[in-house]
Specification:
The complex is a heterodimer.
Chain A: H1 4-17, H2 20-38, H3 51-54, H4 57-69, H5 71-79, H6 81-85, H7 92-112, H8 116-124, H9 129-156, H10 160-176, H11 180-189, H12 192-199, H13 203-211, H14 217-239
Helix pairs in contact in A: 1-7, 2-4, 4-9, 4-10, 5-9, 7-9, 7-14, 9-10, 9-13, 9-14, 11-12, 13-14
Chain B: E1 2-11, E2 14-24, E3 29-33, H1 40-47, E4 55-60, E5 63-64, H2 69-75, E6 76-79, H3 91-101, H4 107-121, H5 136-148, E7 154-158, H6 166-179, E8 184-188, H7 192-198, E9 201-206, E10 209-214, H8 216-221, H9 228-236
Parallel strand pairs in B: 3-8, 3-9, 6-7, 7-8
Antiparallel strand pairs in B: 1-2, 1-4, 4-5, 9-10
Helix pairs in contact in B: 3-4, 4-5
Classes of the chains: A mainly alpha, B alpha/beta.
Chain lengths: 240, 240
């Protein structure tokens, strides 16, 4: 497992060796903060809280995380470096973990760079700090789950566009499962317990409690098991 | 050093490699010849542990690649075809990453290995240049430097002189020759003169099967006075 360190370093620093990191971080911050102001109604709410910022994260992640995750494996496949990587003394699991953790750390940096929003609400009023902490925690955790889906689609193709499109579609389906419009349609045809079960697989259902300051073990288990499952599939896809 | 036993690789109904068996001892340079698509690269990829054989195995320095691929990868220096490398890294950064993952964890041990590899492959003038900006000859040498960085007992080189000018070809050949006394080397090539110049043994593979396994002198003796490519053509005609 010590092999994860050099792999992680190469992957994480690799973002900053190309323009990818700077373009992505800029777009991410502009989009996340812009959405909070113009669609989330940050000022109109007249409350010193970041809920207008965090509530839109499931939608923001839908496009931005596949954009960050699509290159993870498909780039290695396209340039042939995957052959180099897997003739170095590393196991598939180590490579998968290192890559995932590097991309997740990068996303966490992107999310945390929105800290001027915290300064803003602290300046304007008296925010609930507990909710801000749990919201950031939940947001990073949810980013990991989105990323897990993207790593799998990325490992299946050497074409980044295909990887991006499939990631967006899969994430959209998982996201929509929790929305009432979608869920009511299901309830009309399926027994309630089945539609509840399906709604339980949604990102948003499990993210919401975090934005209210609640860390529920079942939400933690949901995100962590989604990450674990996708990494497991990732290893299987690569070892095929 | 290398013991290949009945390697088979099938892609659907096609048998890309069909029961290849040979051994390479320390001090030997094995020339791997064959038409394109005959199974040379596939065989090499199986020996290095990149591809899993459908049947058969390879034993490298006492480690079975089917049982412990990571141990084999530690012993092998491998130059994949067209020398893939992470283009956004500089030569020095890239070799630093390889050294770290090859187990040279202290910065001093790492520096020693990098200096040695750069000296052997004459990369000094471009060491701070990013790899994607290098010419084909230099890229090939970076791949070569990466393969011999950890001074492995086994070198597997897939077309090491491909894309080099005649002077560089000569240089690479004399480098391989000078290192071969304490190593087992397998190299694939399309240049028959290369086999004559440096190899101690030649294997011709055609349609996934070994058709010739002898010394270059014996190979020449098949048709005394004939050009090598004429003998090669008569042996591999069934492939075209």
């Amino acid at each position: 497992m010590s092999q994860i360190v050099p792999l992680f370093k190469r992957e994480f620093l690799g973002y900053f060796r190309s323009p990818v990191a700077y373009v992505f971080l800029s777009i991410f911050l502009i989009a996340s903060v812009g959405l909070a102001f113009f669609i989330g109604g940050f000022f109109k709410a007249n409350v010193a809280s970041l809920s207008s910022f965090f509530n839109l994260h499931p939608w923001l992640f839908l496009f931005l995380i596949p954009a960050a995750g699509m290159r993870l494996w498909s780039e290695e496949k396209r340039t042939g470096t995957i052959e180099l990587l897997f003739t170095l003394p590393v196991t598939t699991l180590e490579a998968v973990l290192a890559k995932f953790l590097a991309a997740w750390t990068f996303l966490a940096v992107a999310i945390l760079l929105s800290f001027p929003m915290i300064i803003t609400v602290a300046y304007l009023g008296d925010p609930d700090w507990g909710i801000i902490v749990t919201s950031y925690f939940g947001s990073i955790l949810m980013a990991g789950a989105y990323l897990g889906v993207c790593t799998v689609t990325s490992a299946m193709t050497k074409n980044q566009v295909i990887s991006f499109v499939i990631s967006v579609v899969v994430c959209l389906i998982i996201l929509l499962l929790g929305f009432s419009v979608f869920n009511e349609t299901l309830t009309s045809v399926l027994p309630i317990w089945v539609s509840d079960l399906i709604a339980n697989f949604s990102f948003s259902t499990h993210f919401e409690p975090f934005t209210k300051g609640i860390i529920d073990p079942k939400d933690l288990v949901y995100f962590l098991s989604l990450i674990g499952f996708s990494l497991f599939i990732n290893v299987l896809v690569l070892e095929r | 050093m290398i013991e290949v036993k009945g390697l088979v690789k099938t892609y659907g109904p096609k048998r890309a490699v069909d029961g290849v068996t040979f051994t390479v001892k320390r001090g030997e340079i094995l020339g791997f010849l064959g038409p394109n698509g005959a199974g040379k690269s596939t065989t090499m990829k199986m020996i290095t542990g990149y591809l899993r054989p459908t049947a058969g195995t390879a034993i490298v320095d006492g480690h079975d690649v089917a049982i412990d691929p990571v141990a084999v990868k530690r012993k092998v220096g491998y130059l994949p075809e067209s020398a893939p490398a992470y283009g956004e890294m500089t030569v020095q950064e890239f070799l630093g990453f390889i050294a770290e993952i090859r187990g040279f964890r202290s910065s001093q041990a790492r520096a020693t290995q990098i200096e040695r590899a750069i000296r052997l492959t004459h990369l000094e003038p471009v060491r701070h240049q990013s790899i994607e900006t290098l010419s084909k000859g230099f890229k090939q040498r970076v791949g070569f430097a990466q393969a011999l960085l950890h001074d492995p007992p086994v070198l597997i080189l897939d077309e090491p002189t491909d894309g080099l000018d005649p002077n560089q070809k000569n240089e690479v050949r004399s480098l391989i020759k000078s290192m071969a006394t304490e190593k087992a080397v397998v190299l694939s090539t399309h240049i028959l003169e290369e086999v004559e110049a440096i190899c101690t043994r030649v294997i011709i593979i055609s349609q996934g099967k070994v058709v010739v396994d002898e010394t270059p002198a014996q190979f020449q003796a098949r048709q005394p006075g004939a050009r090598l490519d004429a003998i090669f053509r008569s042996l591999t005609q069934s492939d075209t």
